[in-house]
Design goal:
CATH superfamily of the largest domain: Response regulator
Number of strands: 6
Number of domains: 2
CATH architecture of the largest domain: 3-Layer(aba) Sandwich
Structural class: alpha/beta
Largest sheet: 6 strands, parallel
Shape: elongated
Strand order of the largest sheet: 2-1-3-4-5-6
Strand content: 5-15%
CATH topology of the largest domain: Rossmann fold
Distance between the termini: 54 Å
Helix content: 55-70%
Radius of gyration: 26 Å
Length: 216
């Protein structure tokens, strides 16, 4: 039976021992190394080439997020599971951004870590229940914020046309010709748009319109 090679990185010996015991209850998994710091993790990863790295975020030298970013920049397909006491949205989001495939909060059950190990070794992503709750909460906040912005900014059909033409780079005269209105009317619409969307120039106007998906 071919065994999957596991590297464990945590600065606390008790945590490393606990993870090691959990891992080695599975006959197809083997712990090939243990690291106590960020730099040591990088060295052992390069030397041992594990199938999976289980790592804490808070470590000496270099934290787990920076280690993950460094490893994944060189090895985009690397399998990393973060095992951390932090369920902070910023930590989880950054790990996702870097390409980390798994995230488990330490106060959860050992079965969560086992699910994460199995899932990631199969090429899937696995974020434990607590981590998923944080991600969902952030997503819900973003949706609510966007909806609020859209409700606060009510544009007429003509104003939306003007925004899109500004984004296309047309001058006021060109917009007037396109819409069969006067340049002065175009300028009036432009001024109203700036006021409604709380922006100072065309660049900010277009960026705000993009954020509100008005340029589709």
């Amino acid at each position: 039976m071919q065994k999957h090679k596991i590297l464990i990185a945590d600065d606390h010996a008790m945590v490393r021992d606990g993870v090691k015991n959990l891992v080695q209850q599975n006959k197809d998994l083997i712990v090939i190394g243990e690291a106590r710091s960020g730099n040591e993790t990088l060295e052992l990863f390069d030397k041992l080439q594990p199938d999976l790295l289980i790592m804490d975020i808070s470590m000496p030298d270099m934290n787990g997020m920076e280690v993950s970013r460094t490893i994944l920049a060189k090895n985009p397909g690397a399998s990393i599971v973060i095992l951390s006491m932090y369920d902070d949205e910023d930590y989880i989001s950054r790990c996702l951004e870097y390409g980390v495939k798994g995230y488990v909060v330490k106060n959860e059950s050992g079965s969560e870590l086992e699910y994460a190990i199995r899932s990631v070794l199969q090429g899937k992503n696995y974020f434990s229940r607590q981590a998923q709750d944080v991600i969902f909460k952030k997503y819900s906040q973003n949706v609510a914020r966007k909806k609020t912005q859209e409700e606060e900014i009510s544009l007429t059909k003509r104003e939306i046309e003007i925004v899109r033409l500004i984004a296309d780079g047309l001058t006021s005269q060109q917009m007037a010709d396109r819409l069969f209105i006067s340049p002065r009317t175009v300028e009036t619409h432009r001024a109203n748009l700036m006021k409604k969307m709380s922006v100072k120039n065309a660049i900010e106007l277009v960026k705000k319109a993009q954020q509100l998906d008005l340029l589709q």
